[in-house]
Amino acid sequence: MDLLRFFTAGNVDDGKSTLIGRLLYDSESISTDIIETLTRQSKTTGENAEIDLALLTDGLRAEREQGITIDVAYKYFSTGKRKFIIADTPGHAQYTRNMFTGASTAQLAIILVDARNGITEQTKRHSIISAVLGIPQVLVCINKMDLADYSEQRFDEIVSEYADFSGKIGLNKVDYIPTSALAGENVVHKSTLMDWYPGPSLLQYLENIEIEVAESSDEARFQVQYVIRPQTEELHDYRGYAGSILNGKFHVGDEVTVLPSGLSSKISGIESNLEEVVSAGKNQPVIIHLEDDLDISRGNTIVPTNALPLTEKSLEATICWMDNTPFNSGQKFILQQNSFRTKAAIREIHSKIDIHSFGDLESDGTLRLNELAKVSVKTAEAVSYDPFKKLAKTGAFILINENTNQTVAAGVI
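Request: output the structure for the sequence above.
Response:
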């Protein structure tokens, strides 16, 4: 059974948490004990509804008291056709960093639009981040149709406006569904009140949508997480390199190169689940053995010699600044890409990204919380990477403040 990762985004009070709650509740993906707990909590909040479905994702007391989602909430469920991972991201503009995080691994973006308010600045912000991250598919849920009298005309107006905007920022694969999360219309079951809409319900859409792989690379990539050298009498010469295969497939006998050193060897063996195998593929945890005893450490990359990634000390990237303290020139960071770490510095901020128009804004040399910018990053050691839109797992990184150990930015190359 395949897995679909998607995230929801929209303005505050557009109904993201309620939509996910309705999706889980009506698809019978919630256990009885959780339903009983939600029923008790809903009654204490004074809600008229028997169950406040938003509580399924608004799990923190602080955010429930404010009535907003303040972090990325992940939910897991499955149907007979597919497994799902949902990231419910915040609606406030000041939580752009959370949305950037939740969207970074998604295959589908669900952007909610309040039928009464139409396209807003936050709608554009979330759409632009989806474009920056190369999300392959976008679904616009025009929600709260019950408050727009289930009007087909209103639905068509919003579709037309969004289609015009999405074309300008390069979102080519966009679908639209009218919903009422509160009333349960067109979420799991087809709506009888919007018979003018011929398409599927939200769940039917999620179960059947074919997501094209945005990444264009099938080249094998492996990054060492741990070097295993027992050095016991029984395993005196054992040397293995443990980690998960990031992409592609490795075979015993493959000629490989270790980066950033550039040393070459052949794969002499592959272990998976305590067994020797002749090959292993993407996301599989393995131990790789090489014919030669090379100087290899955590973070080194093993790749086919005939399919090398780029390996450079100067990176051109788009980053989202995530720290409450603004960036100032001269700050020192640790760049982390999977298990690889090296010292780094932002050498130049070329421009900031206007989240309203997707255009470039002149840089003032600083970065503030939630700002997106195109930058040059200089590293102490060469980084082996593929462009993010070619392979996300090697084209993404984070920047860590060297002094506080706080993550201050996330970036894509």
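The chain has three domains: 3-208, 221-304, 310-412.
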